[in-house]
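Extended Data, panel c. Modelled sequence:
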Amino acid sequence: MVDRKKYSNPLFILVNNNTGSAAEALAFSMQQQKRAQIIGKRSAGAAHMNSWYVINDCLFVSISTGAPTIPGTEISWERIGIIPDFEVDEGKEIEFIRSNFK
């Protein structure tokens, strides 16, 4: 409902080089809007949406057919990945959050 108070507690999203596609889209959008802090290692950088096309019975090709960006900008995470607000070694993210955000 529109009249409800928006969530105002801290929100942390954990990413690493295995984070890609839609998971990156959510993390990137929340980071850009200053709604979440990104913790971990740089993500995979898989922003572009691909479509598969048949060449013949044995050959298919994948071509990028979409490139998401933040509206009004050309900012994207393709090939760059999401750069965490806090770079933390894998497996240490929760410990980092507990130690630094009480």
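The radius of gyration is 17 Å. This feature is highlighted in the accompanying rendering.
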